[in-house]
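In response to reviewer comment 3 from the previous cycle, which asked for concrete evidence that the modeling workflow produces usable outputs, we include below a single protein chain processed end to end. The sequence was submitted unchanged, and the resulting structure tokens are shown without manual editing.
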Amino acid sequence: MQSYLAPSSFTFLSFPSQKPINKTIPFQSFTIKSSIDKTPTTKPKPTTSSKTTSWVSPNWLTSLTKSLTLGSNDDSGIPIASAQLEDVSELLGGALFLPLFKWMNEYGPIYRLAAGPRNFVVVSNPAIAKHVLRNYGKYAKGLVSEVSEFLFGSGFAIAEGSLWTVRRRAVVPSLHKKYLSVMVDRVFCKCAERLVEKLQPFALDGTAVNMEEKFSQLTLDVIGLSVFNYNFDSLTTDSPVIDAVYTALKEAELRSTDILPYWKISALCKIVPRQIKAEKAVTVIRKAVEELIVKCKEIVEKEGERINEEEYVNDADPSILRFLLASREEVSSLQLRDDLLSMLVAGHETTGSVLTWTLYLLSKDPSALLKAQQEVDRVLEGRNPTYEDIKDLKFLTRCITESLRLYPHPPVLIRRAQVDDVLPGDYKVKAGQDIMISVYNIHHSSQQ
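The workflow returned the following structure tokens.
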């Protein structure tokens, strides 16, 4: 879900050739246009705008939620943030983490936020965050599951408890070193070369490029090949599956901000245009994945394929799907479909975000950009990278790590208390309480 501020428009003044060369590439410069360069004021001026698309919306519902859910006997010890619609009127594009950071500085590392019909406890303290995330029986994914179950089904992206443990154990063995080495060579490098080729005309004439969009397309292609051995070719073509993926993601985002969860009523989903569109999108995605599973299963059965070594890779089809089917694990096709959908839909967006922010931050620090470029030239010497090269690209790895610290994706994690609990610091929460862990705040707090 796009609940973060995205540096969307990159203007290239010069860009290196996509073909490997045997000499050091001179420093290439490019300029960035980004909404993040506009620093919001501490207290935005009240606006007369009629927009009510904010998640703190409308004000009367927020006030009603406070009075009904908190009452006069609140002994939780958690301060209540005073959040009005105008607080985020300049940030309706989705930069939720910025007002959360502002309120942390005002109210401390934990505060209560009545947002529309929902009441969140916002956590910016690592000890409290650790308590919530590690106490699996006491806290569940709650709202995350509610708004995305229509897409992920029982996939491990939203699975809980024993199901999550079982499915994770089934998938993790496929991500071994030999698999990653093959993917870097056959998939990562080739997809990256295709992206550079597509960017070249823009680089030559200085046309602005939406790099968030390009990186998202790149990672979708990479995951399609890595997971299914299927080429979406989203960098060059439009397809119903790609459109459906983004429609479904948008629906999940909208559900997280809806004033009332009307989409829980099946009858309404059959007549509300937005829900009809979302249902059609999910049908397209699931049908495509199911067809890929059937096709791959037929090949595995025909060849009598079985995993016969720890780091098994099928040379003709090294995908995760092929590995899971060859493992002969007892799992339904629907569960396999939902697990693969979790990797496809959730995985490409997070990776695209990391690439976008890393490039953006390097562009704002020419000396760091030059150092990263020189390291790549020194280590690779004009050839394509391999999996083994990662350990030698130390500075570039640190740049990516710092990018993840500054702009984590997702910037918030949401959990729901299953029982009454006392958090570190003697803060009390009731069963059913939604908790929003601000990863962004934890990474930026001067107290950590």
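Confidence is low (pLDDT under 50) at residues 1-29, 38-57, 88-93. We consider this sufficient to address the reviewer's concern, and the full set will be provided in the supplementary archive.
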